């Protein structure tokens, strides 16, 4: 109940979508057009759709969550300050709204979402040919949706076919993501607060799982405990939840979640809530029976040491890959000390000898998408430097395959990952997900406070 009381204290928080559109337009060449479509609805099976979620970049610029929508941003050669936002969307339809829910319609697109103009989506083909005519440059996203790509090609073909009548096809086609992804990568104050809320809600699920797990419980039942606080907060899951007991934790993207949790095993949970289109992403690993065994303690502490060292490496101006190298060094040194690896430390690092037990990166950008947009390398193909208000995950792990005969049996079948969401600041890293215990002592203490 206190969680819900906390949620009630959250004041409504809405990004300034119009300001984002202005920021984007300010970066464009004169006489340009931006075209950005939302994603199509997706069929789940037969005539049942998945619950609709708009494309993240489209929502980032519009706040509009209905399907069948396309945004155009237009600035003219006559006056760089003359800008227009046009939203193509569905018109109001009382009969369809009985079945599918209310629509904003053309009027709502202007009054509720701040568009300069709204046009029927059914008129898109004719209107787009007019909008494209005579533009110097068109910013568009291609390669994501074959149907949209084909439709865009038809618009261009129509213009080329009308050149004798004076039509002027665009001079340049430019990838929109090159600009928009960079905007999304650096979070503003509103986004940071939304991500703090996503992290807070995500944390409740992990703590509830620690307090409800017990031997004999199916993984899917523990998954239900994890997502319960998310649903209570009105949040969908940000991605398919991983609840892997025992050897299942060695499968990095294990989502079947259909086995029985066994006494003496660890369980790895990777789950997060999505709050107002911003994702939380947390991993925790803990003993099903509430107490780490000696071997589990040794491996777990090694992963935790690597994670803490990696977080400390997240400083403004440092390479975005540096924290991975820090984690790799700590893990490799620890594996040598435990006898799971043999050889020289530098050789094992240089030759990736550790990848038998640690085969993934240490993190990724986080935002509206769990694996959020943004380049990891600069124009010179060097790892980019960290900037204030980037947000990323830190998630080192160790995975000892159950059939790995190169190690002693006592180590086999253990998978451990510890993941937090971290904001880059000039004063050092801010751990957004710090509410979830991750030391051995804190986890065991929380697990003693069982929820019934």
Can you tell me about this structure?
It is a single chain. This protein has helices spanning 2-9, 17-26, 56-62, 94-100, 105-111, 124-132, 146-161, 177-185, 189-212, 219-232, 294-312, 322-338, 345-350, 440-448; strands spanning 32-37, 43-45, 48-49, 70-75, 83-89, 117-120, 137-140, 172-175, 242-245, 266-271, 274-275, 278-279, 282-287, 391-394, 397-400, 414-417, 420-423, 430-431. It is an alpha+beta fold and 452 residues long. The longest helix is centred in the middle third of the chain and has 24 residues, at 189-212. The protein contains 14 helices and 18 strands. The model has no long low-confidence stretch (mean pLDDT 95). The chain is globular.
């Amino acid at each position: 109940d206190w969680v819900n009381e906390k949620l009630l204290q959250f004041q409504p928080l809405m990004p300034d979508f119009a300001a984002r559109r202005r920021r984007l337009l300010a970066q464009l060449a004169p006489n340009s057009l931006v075209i950005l479509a939302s994603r199509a609805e997706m069929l789940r099976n037969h005539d049942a759709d998945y619950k609709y979620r708009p494309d993240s970049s489209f929502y980032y610029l519009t706040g509009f969550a209905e399907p069948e929508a396309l945004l155009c941003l237009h600035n003219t050669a006559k006056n760089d300050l003359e800008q227009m936002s046009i939203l193509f969307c569905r018109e109001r339809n009382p009969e369809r709204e009985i079945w599918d829910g209310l629509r904003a319609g053309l009027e709502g697109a202007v009054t509720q979402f701040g568009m300069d103009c709204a046009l029927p989506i059914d008129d898109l083909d004719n209107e787009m040919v007019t909008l494209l005519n005579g533009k110097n440059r068109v910013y568009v996203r291609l390669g994501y949706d074959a149907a949209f790509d084909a439709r865009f090609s038809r618009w261009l073909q129509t213009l080329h076919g009308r050149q004798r009548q004076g039509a002027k096809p665009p001079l340049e086609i430019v990838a929109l993501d090159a600009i928009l992804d960079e905007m999304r990568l650096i979070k503003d104050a509103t986004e940071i607060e939304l991500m703090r809320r996503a992290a807070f809600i995500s944390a409740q699920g992990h703590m509830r799982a620690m307090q409800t797990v017990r031997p004999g419980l199916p993984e899917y039942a523990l998954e239900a405990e994890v997502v319960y606080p998310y649903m209570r907060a009105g949040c969908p899951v940000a991605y398919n939840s991983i609840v892997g007991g025992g050897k299942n934790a060695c499968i990095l993207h294990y989502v079947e979640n259909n086995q029985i949790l066994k006494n003496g095993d660890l369980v790895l949970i990777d789950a997060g809530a999505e709050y107002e289109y911003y994702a939380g992403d947390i991993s925790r690993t803990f003993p099903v029976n509430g107490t780490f065994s000696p071997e589990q303690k040794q491996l777990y502490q090694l992963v935790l040491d690597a994670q803490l060292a990696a977080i400390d490496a997240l400083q403004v101006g440092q390479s975005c890959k540096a924290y991975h190298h820090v984690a790799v060094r700590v893990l490799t040194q620890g594996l040598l000390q435990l006898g799971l690896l043999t050889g020289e430390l530098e050789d094992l690092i240089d030759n990736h000898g550790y990848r038998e037990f640690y085969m993934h990166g240490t993190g990724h950008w986080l935002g509206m998408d769990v694996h959020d947009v943004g380049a990891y390398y600069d124009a010179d193909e060097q790892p980019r430097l960290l900037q204030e208000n980037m947000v990323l995950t830190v998630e080192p792990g160790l995975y000892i395959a159950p059939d790995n005969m190169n190690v002693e049996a006592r180590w086999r079948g253990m998978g451990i990952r510890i993941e937090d969401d971290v904001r880059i600041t000039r004063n050092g890293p801010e751990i957004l997900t710090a509410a979830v215990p991750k030391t051995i002592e804190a986890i065991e203490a929380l697990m003693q406070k069982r929820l019934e």
